[in-house]
Amino acid sequence: xxxxxxxxxxxxxxxxxxxxxxxxxxxxxxxxxxxxxxxxxxxxxxxxxxxxxxxxxxxxxxxxxxxxxxxxxxxxxxxxxxxxxxxxxxxxxxxxxxxxxxxxxxxxxxxxxxxxxxxxxxxxxxxxxxxxxxxxxxxxxxxxxxxxxxxxxxxxxxxxxxxxxxxxxxxxxxxxxxxxxxxxxxxxxxxxxxxxxxxxxxxxxxxxxxxxxxxxxxxxxxxxxxxxxxxxxxxxxxxxxxxxxxxxxxxxxxxxxxxxxxxxxxxxxxxxxxxxxxxxxxxxxxxxxxxxxxxxxxxxxxxxxxxxxxxxxxxxxxxxxxxxxxxxxxxxxxxxxxxxxxxxxxxxxxxxxxxxxxxxxxxxxxxxxxxxxxxxxxxxxxxxxxxxxxxxxxxxxxxxxxxxxxxxxxxxxxxxxxxxxxx
Length: 423
Hints:
423 residues; alpha/beta; 7-stranded mixed β-sheet; 6-stranded parallel β-sheet; 28% helix
């Protein structure tokens, strides 16, 4: 629903993402390896959604389990950084349909270093720095994924930048160039212009000559988004953005990118010029408090745009929907990712990192995005906080927790310990 999702995997790939990841220090064992080496347990940190609800439903756990073997075409990645997307806010509330039921490790994008490769992997090797896409499961230290879902990182790219590119920039690129066919001289309205997708849209618009960008954001963020390329920042909290746009461009705009839904979709359609395009890629208006808000959902649904083909024909406008999670064409995704990496190498795009939080601080990360405080991408770091980074008060104890459903299904070969996240 949010438009900030990772590509849908084929069933056999999805199954492997739920398999236990390997330890960074262990390469796949040869068939002649000793049983003791194969059965050596490993531990890794993981953020697990234990149920639907507030921030407390995402638990930091240390899992211990046996080491599996890589299958053909798979790679083991030691994750260095992960992206936080609005889809995870929806997922925590049970509103993201592509996320498996709890208990589940969330996270759809990340970056890291390949620790081992399976058979038939020809274009990846141990030590490669890669960007990784997945439907879920990226919020942990070690992941096993298909090599086809990894992309080499440019030498100058940081792990934080690598984790910030996939979901936001794939979404922005496909909407602008595959759907809306943005061209020189066009105008674009992007809501939540200070978010990850907002920055991506703004930067990509600058690769096309003479594109005017209208961006809605709270007033304190205007200077930053203007420096980033937004032509006309608009404070949606104190002004009617429809009226403000009409003052500048009486005829409206050519492209509206709508992550909000509800009445804002209707407003977006009304702002379109003839032959304009509205692309709905989210329903952020459904998310108000920490937990699912049935009233907000009903209000958004009630106020959604309702059209018939006759009205579309008479208005000469186009309405589209975009959801990266339902794109199954891996060639399209790969082609777009390599185009984005090319643009990064040319200095035409560069993710803006708002903040980085260690796994222990996931509650703070969620709160920052939920309260719309971020300007750019929020990144999660799997590695534990260093002692000097921790608060002066004594550290929270590690508590034993019951085995998760996934562990039970794994024949009770996995145990977990829960680490209390910082508030």
